Records
---
Amino acid sequence: MNISEVLICYIGQTLILGIEERRIYLKKIIVPCGLHCIKINHLGVALGGQEVLKDINLHIHCGSLNVVIGRNGAGKSTLIRAILGDISHTGNIEFKDRENGRIQKLKIGYVPQSLNVEKQTPVSVYDMMASYQSNVPVFLMRGKKIRREIKEHLKLFEAEYLIDKQVCNLSGGEQQRVLLSMALMNSPNLLLLDEPVSGIDKNGMELFYRTIYQLKNHYDLAIILISHDLDYVRQYADKVILLDRGVLKQGNAREVFQSPEFAQVFESRKEEK
Amino acid sequence: MHFFSWLQYDFMKYAFLAILVITPLFGLMGTMIVNRKMAFFSDALGHSALTGIAVGVVLGVNNTNVSMVIFAVIFALLLNFINSRVLSATDTVISVFSSCSIALGLAILSQGGNFSRYSSILVGDILSITPEEIAYLLVILVITLVFWVFGFNKLLAVSLNRTLAKSLHISVGWMENLFAVLTALIVMVSIRWVGILIINALLILPAASARNISENMREYHFFAILFSVFSGILGLIISYFVNVATGPIIVILASIIYFATYFWGSRFNG
């Protein structure tokens, strides 16, 4: 790589960073206080008589990016759905204000893997977001207040120009940004992302992880992310959770990636391929 | 022959009023049925009308309308329940139930060779509607409108992603069941006038046509109701002048609109 290439690369990166900084600063910034924590105690899930998850214990701090990895069918999505309350589970989830030990109601933002929209579905981004967040009937009229609110949140991810587009015509990356803006609308304490990187190209992935990274630095929330891309996990995760029906190993990226449990799960997968 | 000559008959006046109530109702309801991919479901509900009547006959109920409505509501809730439990393809499960129920109905009603008494329900006859029955339809229309104003957002949210809706504390099960029951009520209250064979076409076609050319929910509803009312009124008038059953003419018009919007949509909406 010669000097001019390095220079271009450098300028490019500062440009991208500049955009992201602006994006985040548009919204009032709440610096994570580090005083909240979410505790998951002895969580277990049985589906159809089969134990899918057992005795999961996790301690999640606000302002941290926690990434769940594991082979297919390890129960990653089930874990997310159990935390959401979509499927019943044993054990409990506590949300604590560490300052006075008060137990509060946990607000969860969720970014689903995909939406149930086929081609030609006449649902615009506004329709979708208003249907989840407002009582103004979307088939009848457009609420001014909610529209402004939606636009503001879309701006965080530079997606405000998408507001009147049909959801089914969005690219993978655009859909992701819209869903992220929506998840932030009721200022959650915990953000759950279910394998959000499918259908996004390499550039989009990089941007996605940077956005998440900025998000956790500037908002008072904890993030749990399911991921397949171990390179990004190594780069961005504060905590990695290796899951296979139970927690095999948790800790920072290096600890987990060098553990024998990690080798076992991911080496055997390579052999299968 | 004057164009408005048909309005001099009372039965035509009533039929006209009935269409003014039924068609917007069907247009409205159809939008959600198509969105939720429940076309099979509403079809099965229509078929269950025969079984409902049959059950009424067997139990010796005087007013088979009552047994028909009760049976349809139970049938709808049952289908919903099985849908949420059984993981095999929804359309298969619904087909099984639908054919089972229609066979049962036909078997019972045809006992002793009496089926011709009930055959009018297959095609329907809007010309025989009475003012009192129009009032029932109006009540259902009002209920549906209220439900739509207060519940439509939630229904849409559930249809886009159930888990996401649940995470925002929307009562997913309740909304799904309410919608199923409402669909059952609407189908049952109008089935004598519209007929089992074509009721589903009237529910699905306007919404399907609107989908071809709409980009958001407001356009979708506007066009669905417009197409529904338009084909309803025009169908009634045409059927009067050419002396053909009203229902089929309405469906033919609605189909023409569907194809027209399909070509329009694929040409201009990419």
---
Amino acid sequence: MWANIEQLKMNDMEDTGVSQVAVEPRLVLPQMIMTAKEYRQAKLLMSSRDKCHFLVSTDFVTASERQIEYERAKQKSSKIDALVAEVLARELGIERYMVVRVRNCFRGVQAVTDVEEVISAVTDVQEVILQVLNFDIKNSYLSPHTFSLHGRRVKKNGTLGKVPEGVTMRIGWVSRRRLDGTWMNLSARREALPCT
Amino acid sequence: MHLEPDVLIHGVSPPILLDMALQLHDINQSSWSESHEFSLEDIAIALGATLAEARSVTEALVADGVFARGEGHERGYFATQKLGQLANASISKGITRQRAEVLLQDVIRAAEMINADPEKYPYQVTCLVVFGSFLTDKATLGDLDIGLLLRQTVFFTGSEFGIEQRMKIDRSHYNRSRAALRLKKPKLVSLHELDEVVRIGTPYRLVFGELPNVPAAE
């Protein structure tokens, strides 16, 4: 869902009296919040998973080999899932089965890639509310890699639906739904360190 | 069962708890076995909470009798009848007993009006029973639960219509009688079929007409 930032600010104020978008947006990229070791491991897993996916999609392998590669890709995906789940739980407080709201900043139709730009010139916000069931890292055209959350959509009335939903996190705000129905902002628990 | 909109239950907002109960109830109903076993993960997914949060809520719901612990399985939970009641609960401020009694008199008057005009209402009221929180001594009720039995007395015999159309007309006649009994207050008056009330096994009291061949529970 796309929303104008000013409108979003007003909606937040009406709901809770505190606007989430009034605070500075956070940069949520793997290279910024993972440790160097974790990031290296994630890249290695992604690359080997991509190789498996490539072999599955070609005609150069037999049916049994394709099945083996498919299983191998699944194993790599589950390892990435576990790694990202650990990192996001530690650094942002996002845990599996939580209902989260991700608001990504955009400037017009162009995604913002620098926090400095966001503060001055963000106009649009992409808002996605979902229940997190799986984690992933994806190659992105905006940044080398982005965290990706997959799960199921939350309906307009707040109940959990059955439609699959996914979102990648770049720059913006992340919050989670508490059991009492209120929203809590999640922010990086330590200073973002660039990875080499 | 009715839940107050602003009162948290074991720290959980009523709409979230209701959503959880509905999802688990659906799983339980779709299961082939008589009773489905839920894991803590199932409950966490339905609740939209982490496993740690789900664990504390589940323990509290086990103490309330909404779930029962599975024998021989440490992590297994079974649904009880209370889960079904929770899934069917409404979230409202409720109505006072005085208001409910006035409403009940209005429903009885509506039934008399229906039975007095068989041309307009081909489905006549055979009996009305009241059940649920009205029979308790609570000062505030969720809604007025009425069980009803309608009987078709005037049959539509238009030969120019097909069977499907005749069934549709019958259905609209049936709904007309139900709508009159609901008094245009669907949030306050809840109508149920009499056989549904008997099947649940909940106590009920006859307030209008005569019961067919079912034993009166009170």
